[in-house]
Amino acid sequence: MTAPLLQVAHLSMRFGGLVAVDDVSFAAADKRITAIIGPNGAGKTTVFNCLTGFYKPSVGMLSLRHPTRGELYLERMEGHEISARAGVARTFQNIRLFPRMSVLENLLVAQHNKLMRASGWTIWGLLGLKSFAEAEKAAVEKARYWLDKIGLVAQADWEAGNLPYGDQRRLEIARAMCTDPLLLCLDEPAAGLNPKESHDLTTLLTFIRDQHGIGVLLIEHDMSVVMGISDHIVVLDYGRKIADGTPDTVRRDPAVIRAYLGEEEAA
Amino acid sequence: MAEAAAAAAPAAPSRSFDARAALIESAKVAFVVLVLAATMVGVEIADVTGGHEVRTRFGQVAAAAGVAFAARYVLVLLRHGRHGPVLVGAGAIAALLIGVLAVEWATGQRTIGRYLLPFENPVMDWVLAAIALFLFGRAAQLRRLEGRTASATEASEARWGDRGRWLIRWLGPAFFGFGLVFPFLFFIAPDIVDRRMLDIAVLVLTYIMLGWGLNIVVGLAGLLDLGYVAFFAVGAYSYALLADNFSLGFWICLPFAGIMSAFAGILLGFPVLRLRGDYLAIVTLGFGEMIRIILLNWQAFTGGPNGLSGIPRPTLFGIPFEEPDEDKLTFHGLLGLEFDTSHRIVFMYFLIFALAMLTNAFTQRIRRLPVGRAWEALREDEIASRSLGINPTNTKLTAFAIGAMFAGFAGSFAGTRLGFIAPEMFTFLESAVIVAIVVLGGFGSQLGVVLAAILLIGLPEVFRELKDFRMVAFGLAMVGIMLWRPSGLISHRDPTIRLHPAGRGGGS
């Protein structure tokens, strides 16, 4: 068996005296959905922010196996490089679309680096060269593919900010997928969705895992989503990892039950 | 039944109208106007031979208060759904005022107007007529909407929105066409378009170009730059100094001036672009002042407060606009025309027109390229852009440099137009005016910049006749825009690319 796609080793993140993440290690494989769960304030989003370059971890190593570039250490990379070079894409807990831009434009911005090269860093594009027009066409086709998957083809020219909430959530996932990631990090994608929308979301995520063969890292509170689609679950509590395993083992783990339901009082 | 009908027509005249309350409200407004006008209008210090003299114009103050009283009363009437009397009253007053003003304008004499028009200044009377006309139109509109259901009102508003979009689509080409033929009006109809109008047009076009350049930085990339005039200054001084020291012509210096300004933009951008929002605005403001102070104090290089003069005029492919000379080829000599300095102004007009159009074409094009979309994405959400692999620093730097480059072009034009530049031409006020043009036009809207530049630069020039009231009129216009169009004159944004062809399908 080859090394996992993402290896998180001894990750710690301190904000002054507060230890948000304390010596957490886990791995995420490709073609698998790995969920990170835990009560509020357990440090899940902090792990994500370390992974995607928004924070520099205080201690720890985040290594990603890239098929062509070899081993990449995310903690040493700039925020934008993590997406551009390492292929880690993310969505946000509170949706961060480009609200005044159209849905299609949102998906084209996600393909920025590829299009930038095709436009000769703007020069060929200004001159109107054919190669750029073709690259843009291909980018639009990719966008259309994902719009089709999330069912928003008809709304492609709407302002993204005018979409209903559930559509915005799915659009954010489609936008992350347009960057051609190796690892997709989703921060509470089911938050605020109704049961039908959550169901559509699980279908979309399993589709991404099975058909695109990438790793998915998922923070989620909705247990029906987590238990239904995760291949592997990591449980955090107060910044520490308390359990790690398949949904079934995690569900029965006494430490997890204690973290979620509280300890029985000693008689 | 009756209750349902009343609920369906919210503006029905059945709503109680309290004449006493309305009178009190109007009186309050009139009092405020009276107090304000008494100090601003009522007392005038006039220059007379041998000193100053205080003149009073209390008649005018009373007229202003009276107008305010009447207008407020009419507004209250409208609010309570009494359109009928307003329609008749405001219509009659508007017709009367416009009639008298038109007759006086046509005959060029002040006749019956002396008794009928409340203000001494015809411009103020025209404004009054416009207010009456507006109230008349509003009353007519409300009357038409009366009794309609909410959905019908909404449908009519949607239709207006469509019409507005249609108007915007045609306004651009219309302005372009007008800009192209405008200088010829100077030859055809010198009564309407005189030399002064042509000068104002050149000035407005310069500001349009600056507005378009800043629109890249503020409108697209969302970086509030309050020191934009610094790049304008760098461009102007680059041209003047290159021309002065190396005797280079305008056309060779123009690209150099642009490059120098772009370079200044990068130089400023590197350290400050990690700042956001207000902090960036303050630093750019400081940078603008720094450039001006350097220009002011570096005597040996920039000429200090005396500025630089004798900046060479641009030529038409090497053919100068000068007085015909035996040995030299000049424009007029070549075409066998009689020498006329106004021809050079027309040439200047076309020069800035071409430069402005270049800026516009460039912006329109780059908006559709990945870098343009990345600018807008950064404006919308920097964190999300970063998570998609966009390098924020580089992307912002390109916006800064390109915006600065166009300011540089405009700067060298400004230098060559006046033949003289000095540091005091590049004060913070200029930056503020350019930012105001962009904000007023509606962030990122090219057409909005044109409208705002005409409004902010053209109208104050045209309204010089208003003398002291010029800035009052300006302030009024600004207040009106803040009230009615808080997000700028044109806040509509067209997507840079469409999946479905433009038109009905899928519009929101």
Give a written overview of the molecule.
- The complex is a heterodimer of chains A (267) and B (508).
- Chain A has 267 residues and is α/β, with parallel strands linked by helices.
- Chain A has helices spanning 44-51, 79-84, 103-109, 112-118, 123-127, 130-150, 165-177, 195-212, 223-229, 247-252, 254-261; strands at 6-15, 18-28, 33-37, 59-66, 70-73, 88-90, 183-187, 215-219, 232-237, 240-245.
- Chain A has a 6-stranded mixed beta sheet, with helices on both faces.
- The radius of gyration of chain A is 19 Å and the shape is globular.
- The termini of chain A are far apart.
- The model of chain A has no long low-confidence stretch (mean pLDDT 85).
- Chain B is mostly helical and 508 residues long.
- Chain B folds into 2 domains: 7-149, no CATH class; 180-319 and 339-484, ABC transporter involved in vitamin B12 uptake, BtuC.
- Helices cover 70% and strands 3% of the residues of chain B.
- Chain B contains 20 helices and 4 strands.
- In chain B, a hairpin with a 2-residue loop joins β1 and β2 (51-56).
- At the A-B interface, α2, α3, α4 and α6 of A face α14, α15 and α16 of B.
Supply the CATH architecture of the largest domain in chain B.
Answer: Orthogonal Bundle
- N-end to C-end Cα span of chain B: 37 Å
* The CATH architecture of the largest domain in chain A: 3-Layer(aba) Sandwich
Which pair of chains forms the biggest interface, and how many residues does each contribute? A-B, 50 and 34 residues
User: Under the CATH scheme, which class of the largest domain in chain B?
Assistant: Mainly Alpha
| Mean pLDDT, all residues of chain B | 81
CATH homolog superfamily of the largest domain in chain A:
P-loop containing nucleotide triphosphate hydrolases
Radius of gyration of chain A: 19 Å
Structural class of chain A: alpha/beta
Mean pLDDT of chain A: 85
> What's the β-strand tally of chain B?
4
Strand order of the largest sheet of chain B: 1-2
Characterize the main sheet of chain A.
6 strands, mixed
CATH topology of the largest domain in chain A, what is it called? Answer: Rossmann fold
Question: What is the H-and-E element order of chain A?
Answer: EEEHEEHEHHHHHEHEHEEHH
The profile of the biggest β sheet of chain B is: 2 strands, antiparallel
What radius of gyration of chain B results from the CA coordinates? 27 Å
Oligomeric state of the chains present here? heterodimer
